[in-house]
TrEMBL record:
Cellular component GO terms held in the UniProt record: MLL3/4 complex
Protein name as it appears in the record: JmjC domain-containing protein
A Pfam family annotated for this UniProt entry: TPR_8
Keywords, in A-Z order: Chromatin regulator, Dioxygenase, Iron, Metal-binding, Nucleus, Oxidoreductase, Phosphoprotein, TPR repeat, Zinc
Source species: Bombyx mori
Chain ranges of the JmjC domain: 749-912
Cofactor requirement: Fe(2+)
GO biological process, any: regulation of gene expression
Repeat (TPR) residue spans along the chain: 75-108, 301-334
Amino acid sequence: MDEKEELHLTSPELQVLSELDSRQFGFLKLRGTEHGRTRALVLKAVKYLEGMLVQVKEEERGCSPVAKRDICIDPKTFCKLGHFHLLLEDYAKAMSAYQKFYALEQDNWKDPLFLYGLGLCYYHYNAFEWATKALQMALYVSPGFSRAADAHLRLALMFKARRHWAAAAVHFRRARLAPHQDATFTRLELSFHAAHLLEARGLRKAARDAYERLLEEPKLSSTLKADVCRQLGWLYHRCVSLGEPAARARAAIWCLQRAVAAEPESGAGLYLLGRCFAAQGKVHDAFIAYRNSVEKSEGNADTWCSIGVLYQQQNQPMDALQAYICAVQLDKGHSAAWTNLGSLYESCQMPRDAFACYTNGGSAATANNAALRQRLAFLKAHLALAPMPSITGKRRQLPSIEEAWNLPISAEMSSRAPKSAPPPYPGKRDELSQHQLHTLHYLQKNSHNLTPQQQALMQQLLSQYRLAQAAKTRAVTKQEGSGSTTGSDTTESLAEDLLKKFSDVQPEIKKEPISSDTNTSNSSGNEAVLCGRQPVVKLEPLKTDPLKPVTFHIGMNSKQILEACKDNAGPATSWSVLGDGCGPPEPPSVPPPRLSPEQLAPPAPFVYVESKREAFSPQLQDFCLKHPIAVVRGLTAALKLDLGLFSTKTLVEAWPDHAVEVRTQLMQSADENWDATGRRRVWACASHRSHTTVRKYAQYQAGSFQESLREERERAAPLSDSDSGPAKRRRAARMLRFGTNVDLSDERKWRPQLAELQKLPAFARVASAANMLSHVGHVILGMNTVQLYMKVPGSRTPGHQENNNFCSINLNIGPGDCEWFGVPDAYWGGVRELCERHGLSYLHGSWWPDPDELRAHGVPVYRFTQRPGDLVWVNAGCVHWVQATGWCNNIAWNVGPLTARQYTLALERYEWNKVQNFKSIVPMVHLTWNLARNIRVSDPRLHRAMRTCLMQTLRAATGTLNTVRARGMPIRFHGRARGEASHYCGACEREVWHALLVREHERRHVVHCLQCARRASPSLQGFLCLEEHHMDELAQVYDAFTLHRPAPLGAHAALPPD
């Protein structure tokens, strides 16, 4: 910028700029002509801010170290600059500015506009892991964020691309619940993506029905109609469960022809139509469809690959070769084209070129193709012994791969992307050798004196060098954004086209903010001028909040808190139950130092109980609380518990029609987990849910045992020809059914069983005054109630932490054993990191860890056997997974010891679940207030954590009521009925306590939190506010909750001195 040039920003311009941030992305189109004046103003502001930053840097260079301290740049300047670059769609500069703000501003996580803009940048670059983290944090900081619908949709699409189906479904549901008046997508587009999620999950019939319902919508746009028809047509083509082949073929052709008619300029529908014609043997129609597809979208490697297949089937090898070459030049990682090209060369007796093509196909081509792997091994062995081909030998039917790469092609194939350097043979690399680099450097220095041959060599070397650099860049990008997907899988990628349309076809709802030219001759007080030394201008709203923030602390009494909240309760971001200014918890890294091999495989803590006195001793509870996981052996015998009350026989006799949830799983050994093909070890643990009754599962359990006895007899007998390999493999791949989550909460049904468990010591009972979960005041199934599990060998409970990190008790009824694995809670971040590495969601996914991989990552793993009668204590936060090794039943429930560690871990997981958009089924706020009413606390750490939560939620309740009153809404007292369940927001699924904002939706009254209610209706029109408690009562509870200091022993006998 010219030093003499002055830039003026007037007050109206500053007002306009102050209103521009990441929320306008997708609405304010600065590339078009409609907002040309706004674009010019944003460019002017960018130039102004960049000039100011350059000027400050120059002054810093010329200043002494002492003077540098007086020169500071407001970090918000970089954040605002990032917003401007984002709106201009200059993502690289936007990312740079956001990263600078992130580095300079310690409390960057409190700014949802920054987090949203940063997430959009990461999303643009397919860095899905980082984009997910940023968008989740934006929604955590501001649940009522005005762009929550867009954030949830992007999160859903990223989770869908990473195959995290459950998490994707959650975000699609929340995007649907969010108001759409300010969304950049329509409800029909959202329904299309939700239907595609059903298809991706394998729910093909449900997906078909959803697509067909969409086609009946009268307001369906032509573009979306084409997308729906393409997906539906391709679904009919490839899914055999949707009807007879002939009917499916007709339906597929009909849908794809409708897609072509709806969007004539797109080549995607024509390509799929060609695939369908080819599958039906209509070669001529397929060629016409493919040719038309190429004319519409030249750069489609899939189309050229399919054209090559048709030519190869028609015995036209040269034309097939040219089509395949077109495909791999457009997409060098197109494994199908490379594999087909290798097959073509092999059919023409050219094994060296076939081997080169198979190898270029990469691991994607051979991963699930055993025949191709065998073929590669054979060719490698054959070529190692074969002599090099002679130039004067027999004439080849096809040119070599390097020759074919540079051959001219026929006119009908000429419209494609320009050629690039030929691919290497196996053993060669894209990188230039040192000699080639020297040659390239020399040729570039003497480029003005080169012969035509030397110029051609220089261009070839330069092109190869650029390819190598691009490959390195792609590798780095892939590592940074592990969630990015390739476009070669047509069945998974067609619906993702709408992702690209986000920035192209979104509705315009923001009008031009500048209506007329502004007089630039205003006084200096109303304008910002860049000339000479000026402070960095904050482009913030001109209206400022006159209220001063109040510092809250747990030493304040209720009156002081309520008085302070009348003036300013603070923003919702300051109402965290962890304390004002505390950021959300993050998964911990694997703690140093590196453990030894012995420490990585620690023995499980066992304790043997031989008498009732030992069972009720405080030492037993202390032992359990000191270890991440522990086995108590002999407890049931010492207490004379009748475990037969929980046997399958007793259950059938008592309530044979009681419901049982069934998980169908693959039988495997406990320390292994294989994919469906049985070729690759994975972490994903697949199971399919269904339901049955106790009687029916008991029959299956008994039948499974009888079958096992029969197999034992067969193994003992001499093998016959019929006991061959295939039969053995069928037995090895056997499926099993695991009866889980049998609810034993009904005291009328299960009175004898529940009464028997009262014999346990207080710290292990289902209901006890020393158990936090007994103070919730209502039932939480499976946590403060008993659940039973009916197992056959191989039944698996996948890896998990208990809900809200509460402790759990598990009793093995027998007669068989269970094998347990456990990881201390300090290492759960390492387990989560490996889950993400395997493409699995830690909270939503189903995973079975590999103990060896965990130990190699520095994570210790306990492993032990639970025998009949053994009680397993799972301490707070311990990651564990279990597999039955025999036929047995187990009973389990959760407990919450009244310790600071248990309460803090539960509260931290409560907050982290908010970040992850995961529902906490333990209402920690409601529980904390009940604990404050019911118990006295003498532990200072527990008292401090609980009082902080009480203070913060009292602030939040008062702030909510103040907001409601400010909008003129009446507040009605609702109270709480005995046993009434805690309430959760119908939109974000967070706990809603004390102030319930209720609105009728589909003939149901749905509770909302304040943020979601304001997002749905800024004036709260249509909502009713219900108050659960009297504020005076809450104030009394808060003031009465003080640190209890028990009198020292013998103090009552002490006498005053004379």
